[in-house]
Design a protein that fits this description.
Length: 380
């Protein structure tokens, strides 16, 4: 059974599909008409002032046009969300972007929320908690393997959406029947992931800040154990998992940097050849420092910068057996050379920037004072 939309019987389902198709056609026509109207209202390049508005139970914010109205950060407003007209709060300062025809439909804030709007929101919140308690009773009655996360009113309280998590698809036909008979309202049961639940409810992460998924991330969840291994993190899932019980989304933030640094370092355990002609076996790498430890053919453990790695050793290369291995990792081979190259590179960049500035100044003065150069002007 579809876990997204439910109604009372097959006839109602067919009617709902027809209504949805009709609504989609109307929405497409309205969007086309709206784009045409916006093309008449705004000109390409015209600066428009927007704010971001977030609605309860929604993981992301939406941009709304405010024009010349004064809207403060944190102010409650009434606007059209993706689930109908609702009360939300402004969670950004006003910002301006130039208009272009590819921006799509531009939504405006309907009004600043009044005391009556806030009172209705509080009443809906009380009903949501009441309906949540009733739904949990029916879930226990039918012994369904599902976890109700939260309840949300949409369409000015005409529709009630029940969000839940479950390990598999759930047959909740009898649950729907009991809820409709008891609540006397149009309902919808929607299955979400544990990440969506954390994003909708919100919370504080182990870092002490608001959850990324409920604050600024628009796409989340593309995190795997491979990323933790790539960063040499201990596979302790009590540390790696977030409040949702899944791998933390922030594991992906630095994964590109670790991958780039690994690409210039040799693989651990391989026999390699260095740029100075030495052969040996890689024992350990330090990714952030971009250095690696290697046991040479002479039985000496040394530490090299990543730039010393040239290639893998030939297949017929064999390391001799050592009774004793001396340790010289206190000195990083090639570090001074690398520092000198970086200093020279910075000096070259500095000279290049200064020359560009001088050429620009010469060009400006020649435009202002004819063919005279900057040096001639100061001399005269």
């Amino acid at each position: 059974m579809n876990n997204n939309n439910t109604n009372n019987g097959n006839n109602n389902n067919q009617n709902t599909l027809l209504e949805n198709n009709h609504d989609d056609q109307n929405d497409s026509q309205n969007r086309g008409q709206q784009n045409q109207n916006e093309g008449q209202r705004f000109q390409n390049g015209q600066l428009l002032t927007f704010v971001k508005v977030r609605f309860p139970g929604n993981a992301k914010s939406f941009a709304f046009l405010i024009g010349k109205r004064k809207i403060a950060y944190g102010q409650k407003v009434v606007a059209m969300s993706d689930r109908g007209m609702a009360v939300g709060y402004v969670n950004s300062f006003p910002y301006q972007i130039p208009y272009h025809s590819d921006m799509g439909p531009i939504k405006s804030i309907s009004k600043v929320a009044t005391d009556r709007d806030l009172e209705l929101q509080r009443e809906h919140y009380k009903k949501e908690k009441e309906f949540e308690s009733r739904c949990k009773i029916y879930i226990e009655k039918h012994a369904l393997d599902m976890n109700l996360t939260h309840v949300e009113f949409t369409h000015f309280g005409k529709k009630c959406v029940f969000y839940f998590t479950a390990p598999a698809r759930i047959d909740f036909r009898y649950l729907v029947r009991d809820l409709v008979n008891d609540l006397k309202i149009r309902i919808e049961l929607r299955q979400i992931s544990v990440r969506d639940r954390a994003a909708a409810i919100g919370g504080i992460g182990p870092c002490g800040l608001q959850l990324c998924c409920s604050s600024f991330l628009t796409k989340y969840g593309s995190v795997g154990v491979k990323m933790a291994k790539n960063q040499d993190l201990t596979l302790n899932f009590s540390k790696l998992n977030g409040v949702c019980g899944q791998l933390k989304c922030c594991l992906s933030y630095e994964d590109d940097v670790y991958s780039q640094k690994r690409s210039i370092l040799p693989p651990v355990g391989e026999y390699i050849k260095l740029i100075n002609g030495e052969f040996g076996r890689v024992e350990k790498i330090q990714i952030l420092e971009e250095v690696f430890d290697m046991i040479t053919e002479q039985g000496v453990r040394k530490r090299y910068v990543g730039a010393y790695f040239k290639s893998l050793a030939p297949d017929d290369f064999r390391m001799p057996d050592f009774e004793h291995i001396s340790d010289e990792t206190s000195i990083i081979v090639g570090l001074e050379e690398l520092k000198q190259k970086e200093i020279k590179h910075r000096e070259d960049e500095k000279i290049k920037i200064m020359n560009e500035k001088t050429d620009y100044a010469e060009h400006v003065f020649q435009n202002l004072f004819g063919q005279q150069s900057l040096k001639e002007i100061f001399v005269n």
